[in-house]
Design goal:
Blueprint (H helix, E strand, L loop, with lengths): L7 E5 L4 E5 L1 H9 L3 E5 L2 E4 L18 H13 L2 H12 L14 H37 L9
Parallel strand pairs: 1-4
Antiparallel strand pairs: 1-2, 3-4
Helix pairs in contact: 2-4, 3-4
Length: about 150
């Protein structure tokens, strides 16, 4: 019995030839719409779509004023801290009322969870500030464009 080999030739729309593939793999590509059979032993890979899949492209000309607005927005966004403090203030602080009674473990767990949320948010803010700092250095150090280029 002859073993099944990679005997299906693979090409793309532009005529580029790729390594041969297994028959089962070729049928799967055709079934999923990623290729089509040109003959019994050749498949053609589908070409990429003619439209851009990205929602929006970032403008290469980031203005310094936009960057400063983002930093100011980070500074003024303290609502999450106010909410955390409000939740802490509303917690029922338990404790031992008599020897041998358990402490308020649930309250401690809630406080630790709020601490973790605030720490995570602050870490994110620090990373954003580092990104904005790098963007600032790129803006300040990029070559000045002439009026002809614009």
């Amino acid at each position: 019995m002859t073993p099944i080999g990679k005997n299906i030739h693979v090409v793309d729309e532009r005529g580029n030839v790729y390594e041969a593939t297994w028959p089962k793999r070729a049928r799967g590509l055709v079934k999923n719409g990623r290729a089509r059979f040109l003959s019994g032993d050749t498949i053609c890979l589908a070409c990429p779509p003619n439209f851009d899949l990205e929602d929006a492209k970032m403008n290469d000309k980031v203005e310094l004023s936009w960057l400063l607005q983002q930093i100011a927005a980070l500074q003024s966004d303290t609502e999450y801290l106010k909410e955390a403090f409000a939740h802490l203030a509303q917690m029922n602080v338990g404790g031992k009322t008599a020897p041998g009674e358990p402490e308020d473990v649930a309250g401690q767990a809630k406080a630790n969870a709020l601490r973790d949320i605030v720490c995570s948010r602050e870490s994110t803010n620090q990373q954003l500030l580092a990104l904005y700092r790098d963007m600032y250095y790129d803006l300040v150090n990029r070559p000045q464009e002439t009026a002809q280029e614009e």
